[in-house]
Amino acid sequence: MAQVPQTFFDALAVRTWCGLALEALGRAREEIDAINVYPVADGDTGTNLYLTAESAAAAVEAVFTAYDEGGRPSLADAARAMAHGALIGARGNSGTILAQLLRGMAQVLADDGEASHTDGSGLRLALRRAADSARQAVAHPVEGTVLSVASAAADAAERSTGEGDCGAVARAAYEGARAALAATPGQLVVLERAGVVDAGGRGLVAVLGALVETFTGETPRGVATSSVVHARVDAVSDTASMAAGDECADVPGEADGPAFEVIYLLEAEDAAVTRLRTRLDALGDSLVVVGGDGLWNVHVHVDDAGAAVEAGVEAGRPYRIRITHFGVGDVHTRGGERPPRERVQRAVVAVVPGEGLAGLYTEAGATAVLARPGEPPASGELVEAVRRAHAREVVLLPNDADLRHTAAAAAEQARTEGIRVALIPTRSAVQGIAALAVHEPERRFDEDVVSMTSAAGATRYAEVAVAERQSWTLAGICEAGDILGLIDGDVAVIGSDVTAAAETVLDRMLSAGGELVTLVLGDDAPVSIADHLEARVREAYLAVDTVVYRGGRQGALLLIGVE
């Protein structure tokens, strides 16, 4: 679809750029994955960049949605949303660096919070801040990587003519990045041997190409087609054993590396993060720490994954922790003789709202996707989870009514990759628990899906939560801080006491009958609430059993299921 060129860099331009960048990375994802020989030949740089951009775009869309009836967000609002979305959604080394590039730009674009837009001069400053801040975030920068491409883009932008023309500045940055990308094989031996350019740099060229299209309406040369120097994808597999170190490691060509990639978001003060950098740098390599203002994204390759997480615990509060063991065939484990892992026949992928439930689902054999309150997973993240399940058949449980369309898009994408996917429209994690309880991988796929769908549909769900703002509900007007009891998604109870509200909700649900009550407690739920509700069920409802789980930081104080 043709885009209307943006003359200035305003909120709409941020939105347009994020959308075009996501499309560009979507088109280039497989190519970028294929040329990913450095830092580790695991073929995921394109996917990681796409997921990071998807998170940024979703955050910007959320800001615009909030303004649908009251005008348009400011440039500062949109830029900060873009940076925050990229930060919380950053995946892998390249995605983490892209998040810092966008954060650096946002710091300039949001500098004057009252300004509605900026011009070419502001864009030049933003590109320079992006390149410099990304380089500073990497423990040991190496030339011939995305860092070199970003610096070249900023240099070219500064040399561009046309003081106030964002299109001219963007085009100059793109051409500078494109030239720097072509030069990367001459800077890193592993790229030269494989006959490819740097994968992260290739992704940044696509993102800058989208910036050109935002301001000119034209797709620049090289964006829709490969930018690989020799385009010898077959050479990637032949030379994978030569690829070592990391996109930002300081020893290119190093023979071996750590066994684990550890990534987590971290809430911590600046001083604690400074100490964390020192400790993680001693534990491993490929260290990239990006963010600020109390929220950071930490990426490192280590042999002792537990120590890396413990370091985060000492610095602040880590969450969304992802630990990946470099698999067979990548540089870090190339000495192994194990054959590639066989696909299992069937797997379950589920979105869960808290760490406790993630553990429960994982113990039951599911691949869990942790969704932090207010930060639902994007479709790309669900697709990645389906791939990670490594199965021919996958049952997908979104466990949230608002994720129905996201999950449907993920299922459709996975089907194009030859995976048979069934989407069960679970609207709560307790419905997912019911579905998982009757899951039998040995049954025919259709029979298993029907049984799981039936179990989920027979489970009524409720939650007890704290109202965030004043609003109209089916139960009346609630004020910020009120306790809300929601049954099947609608507010049924408004109160001031958590336990009393939960008991009222439970009584209303059991008035229609039931055999099993499932209670999932959030971290902020009263300590005695489970005992109180279990006693209530024993005394008032004969032959009804109760099971209690700890959900962790799940947003709601309490989830209730009745089946």
In short:
This protein has 563 residues and is α+β, with helices and mostly antiparallel strands.
Description:
By secondary structure, the chain is α+β, with helices and mostly antiparallel strands. It contains 19 helices and 18 strands. A 6-stranded mixed sheet has the order 15-14-11-18-16-17, with helices on both faces. It has a 4-stranded antiparallel sheet with strand order 4-5-3-6, sandwiched between helices. A 4-stranded parallel sheet has the order 8-7-9-10, with helices on both faces. α4 (92-109) packs across α5. 55% of the residues are buried.
Spell out the key features of this protein.
single chain; 563 residues; alpha+beta; four-stranded antiparallel β-sheet; 18 strands; 47% helix; globular
Write the layout of secondary structure elements.
Layout: E1 9-10, H1 11-34, H2 45-66, H3 75-89, H4 92-109, E2 117-118, H5 120-137, H6 146-159, H7 166-183, H8 189-194, H9 199-216, H10 233-238, E3 260-267, H11 270-283, E4 284-292, E5 295-302, H12 305-315, E6 317-325, E7 344-352, H13 355-363, E8 367-370, H14 379-389, E9 391-397, H15 404-416, E10 420-423, H16 429-437, H17 445-457, E11 460-466, E12 471-473, E13 476-478, E14 483-487, E15 490-495, H18 498-510, E16 516-522, H19 529-540, E17 545-552, E18 558-562
Parallel strand pairs: 7-8, 7-9, 9-10, 16-17
Antiparallel strand pairs: 1-2, 3-5, 3-6, 4-5, 11-14, 11-18, 12-13, 14-15, 16-18
Helix pairs in contact: 1-2, 1-3, 1-9, 2-3, 2-4, 2-14, 3-4, 4-5, 5-6, 5-7, 6-7, 6-9, 7-9, 11-12, 14-15, 16-17, 18-19
